[in-house]
Amino acid sequence: MAPLTAPDITAARRLVVKIGSALLVDRASGLRTEWLAGLAADVAQVKARGADVVLVSSGSIALGRKVLGLPDGALPLEQAQAAAAVGQIRLARAYEEVLSPHGITTGQVLVTLEDTEDRRRYLNSRATMETLLALGVVPIVNENDTVATDEIRFGDNDRLAAQIAVTVGADQLILLSDVDGFYSANPKEDPTAVRFDLVEQITPQIEAMAGGPISGLSKGGMKTKLMAAKTAVAGGCAMAIMEGSPPRPLTALAQGANRTWFIPQADPQVARKRWIAAMKPRGEVTVDAGAVAALRGGKSLLPAGVTQVAGQFGRGDPVAILGPAAEVLGKGLIRYTAAEARAIAGHRSAEIEGILGYPGRAALVHRDDMVV
Ligand code: GLU
After folding, report:
1. Which atom of ligand 1 is nearest to the CA of 142?
2. Angle at 255 between CA 250 and CA 261, to 5 degrees
3. How much distance in Å is there from the Cα of 145 to the middle of ligand 1?
4. Which atom of ligand 1 lies closest to the CA of 91?
5. Which of residues 204 and 38 earns the better pLDDT score?
6. Got the DSSP string for 315-363?
7. For the chain, domain boundaries
């Protein structure tokens, strides 16, 4: 096997950067605008190289609580939700203000845990993010804290950022944090703790080093960072933890700042195909010879090529794709329910609206969501 080397941030194709509240918001003076301007300059540089950038930013609650004059310490859920409502609008505006001088358009994306767990909503957020990125926009993502209650929340943006990175097929995720990497023990308590440069596999030993379960108060401890790393690398995305406070953090990373990289075994496309291949199909779609040729040529599956639909499934569910002789061709996530798929089978994509009464997506199974 080739020796492992750290990913090069200047070679990133699609980069997700997670910004923690403590970097962005100072308890006394509020938003750290100077630091944010430095980050914006870094983002502009990455974009100028042709890479896509997604920012996952915390800070809505921290900002909102300052504006509302709420006390330090843990807030009751309702107050945290109110603080998020007040803070998020300021947070989004702050990013807009620092990025627009670079000619960069920003968009606000607020997600909940369900948006990534439910397949239909997952495909929706994936499509929206893809469109934003194709338009050159830098999405500013946060959890929708105002509506997410405790049982249905991510609660920490480390795991949210990893989920977003996998959703958009990013190749690199950078967690800008208050620690400069992953250590063999808590460096604040254990002077013998050493920082890892690269982690190739998240073994049980590595997991044990992250310490016990996080308490209700501490968000984004090492444990959640390691969970984030697992999600990211399983999705084919490399993840770095670094100290985010330098004035130009991404430049600092490119210049060799301390960090820990978690290395994936496969690239995002391969990992996504494996993920789909491992799913249990909930239905079957039989296609004609023309469609077989199109699919083998790397095309999406259009309703026109479908001769039969079997099973009960919802939008975003995995289905098996069968050829004319009922041979298994592959598997994919279908963009229509079983009833809709039956109605539009054999029809041209332009007829979809007339049949269903609403415009749908042209493909039944998009090529990115398919293994053949
Ligand atoms: N979504 C929360 C906020 O914006 C932060 C969660 C976290 O810090 O991980 O305030």
Report:
1. 1
2. 70
3. 8
4. 4
5. 38
6. TT-EEEEE-TTS-EEEEEE-SS-HHHHHHHTTS-GGGHHHHHSS---S-
7. 9-271, 279-371
Least confident of 147-151, 170-174, 181-185: 147-151
Q: How far apart are CA 303 and CA 354, in angstroms?
A: 14
Range 272-290 average pLDDT: 90
d(CA 31, CA 313): 47
Give mean pLDDT, residues 181-194. 88
* Distances, alpha carbon 37 to alpha carbons 48, 133, 287, in Å: 16, 21, 53
pLDDT given at position 266:
82
Whether pLDDT at 241 is above 70 = yes
What CATH code is assigned to 9-271?
3.40.1160.10
Q: Whose C-alpha lies nearest to ligand 1, atom 4?
A: 58
Q: Which of 178, 196, 164, 210 is nearest to 261 (CA)?
A: 196
Domain covering 279-371: architecture: Roll (2.30)
What separation in Å is there between the alpha carbon of 141 and the centre of ligand 1? 11
H or E element, residue 114: helix 113-117
**Distance from the alpha carbon of residue 212 to the mean position of ligand 1, in angstroms:** 21
**Atom 7, ligand 1: residue with shortest CA distance:** 156
